[in-house]
Amino acid sequence: MSLRRAIVGVLLAGALLASAACGGGGGDAQPGETATAPGASAEAPPASTAGSLTIWCWEAAADTLKVVDDDFRQAYPNIEFKYVLLEPADVYRKIQLAVTAGGGFPDVSCIEDSHLAQFVELGALADITDQVTPFLDQMNEYKWEQAQKDGRYYAMPWDSGPVAVFYRRDVFEKAGVDPASIETWEDYYEAAKTIKEKTGVPMWPQPTGQNDARLFEMLLWQQGIGYLDADGNLTLDEDPRVEATLEFMGRFWREGLTAGQQWWTDPWYKALANGQVATIVEAVWMGTFFKSFIAPEAEGKWGVMRLPTWESGGSQASNDGGSTLAIFEQSEQKDAAWAYTRFHLGLEESQLAMYKQKDIFPSLETTYDDPFFGEPDPYFGGDEARALFAEVVKEIPNATIYSPDYQLMNELTSAEIQKFALGRESAAEALANAAETIRARTGRS
């Protein structure tokens, strides 16, 4: 829940932030016992571990962590800790300032996946490979990509961002479109035309201006591609699938099938709450937003279905957002910091308690066996939405969206996508221009 300019907007609105959530893995062991994972084991820090920790987080993240703080205090009575509440952008700004100054770091910080690689590259985070090795097989595999460099690991996964299609049941029914008939993105496009013709409702929210490229990135991630190839070379203007993806989005803009409200604004919230848009393609945390502040009175009107495929038998999984906890290299309280991180993210009981109370989707796969995941969700008309996302998250392909240069690449690509959406340049021109500027700014080939 993990993430993003979108999340900053939500925090400013005072709402619960899905990106705040994070999932960890590590079995049922209690402090002082042994947590076992396939092929490895690790002793929990002893209950006598002492320290005084400073933890940077945004408010919703801290509120989620606090769900198990009392249990942590009982397990580790000699560890004191305090939260410093900052908006996500301020967390990252202060970390960068600390890197520049050579000091002033916290002991632990919440970090969204979209920013993690940047701080791994800067060398600010502690190497916790030995500690997290027993958890590698228990977390969503793709979550470790941003946490590692050269085979070493620098953060513990918290929450994941599996993506699905949230759809308005009433709009689909009025248009006579069966959601089950949508198997491919081409089917989705045809359904969009029918829904617009029969109801006047656009298919998805995607403004021409202020487009942040997040949907574009989700559609690429589904195909296991991104801004870069496996060697770190830019592929925006070289992989034909990238241009084809942007061209697909262009159909919706050209044919008036999109809702034009800017994301994370009151008009956008109202469009979602009032059924003025038929679907939204987003991560699991969007359901949290619906229930908590966007459309709490729309219970039963929304449903959830898996992503359409690009081709028959193709992937139906993607990601948006997610977050982690990281310990800093300069911390003099690393044992206490690991005890805190392991207890909050590495125990099933902790992760389930946070999920059940704060609706933050865990990265710890052993939690998915809990009966809670199989319960029908009344908000989504009785759909087993949690089970659906638990299936999707295990299938998310590794992709090259997030990197140390992600923020810059997203910003520059967004600007060119807006020009394409407004009809000022072709998809090929937009991607070529973005790629040229990114290469000039980063030195990537």
Please characterize this protein's 3D structure:
With 445 residues, the protein is of the alpha/beta class. Helix content is 40%, strand content 13%. The chain has helices at residues 5-12, 59-65, 69-75, 88-101, 113-122, 129-132, 169-175, 185-199, 214-222, 240-254, 266-273, 285-294, 334-345, 348-358, 385-393, 406-421, 427-442, and strands at residues 34-37, 40-43, 51-57, 79-85, 108-112, 148-149, 152-153, 156-159, 163-168, 204-205, 258-259, 279-283, 302-305, 323-327. The strands form five sheets. Strands 4-3-5-14-8 form a five-stranded mixed sheet. Helix 7 crosses helix 8 (185-199) and helix 16 runs antiparallel to helix 17. The radius of gyration is 21 Å and the shape is globular. The two termini are 32 Å apart. Mean pLDDT is 91; it is low at 1-41.
Show the helix and strand layout.
Elements: H1 5-12, E1 34-37, E2 40-43, E3 51-57, H2 59-65, H3 69-75, E4 79-85, H4 88-101, E5 108-112, H5 113-122, H6 129-132, E6 148-149, E7 152-153, E8 156-159, E9 163-168, H7 169-175, H8 185-199, E10 204-205, H9 214-222, H10 240-254, E11 258-259, H11 266-273, E12 279-283, H12 285-294, E13 302-305, E14 323-327, H13 334-345, H14 348-358, H15 385-393, H16 406-421, H17 427-442
Parallel strand pairs: 3-4, 3-5, 10-11
Antiparallel strand pairs: 1-2, 5-14, 6-7, 8-14, 9-12, 9-13
The global form is: globular
What fraction, in percent, of the residue positions are helical? 40-55%
Measure the end-to-end span: 32 Å
CA-atom Rg in angstroms: 21 Å
> How many β-strand runs?
14
Query: Structural class from helices and strands?
Result: alpha/beta
Poorly predicted segments: 1-41
- Beta content comes to 5-15%
Biggest sheet: strands side by side, in what order? 4-3-5-14-8
Count up the helices: 17
Mean pLDDT: 91
Biggest sheet layout: 5 strands, mixed
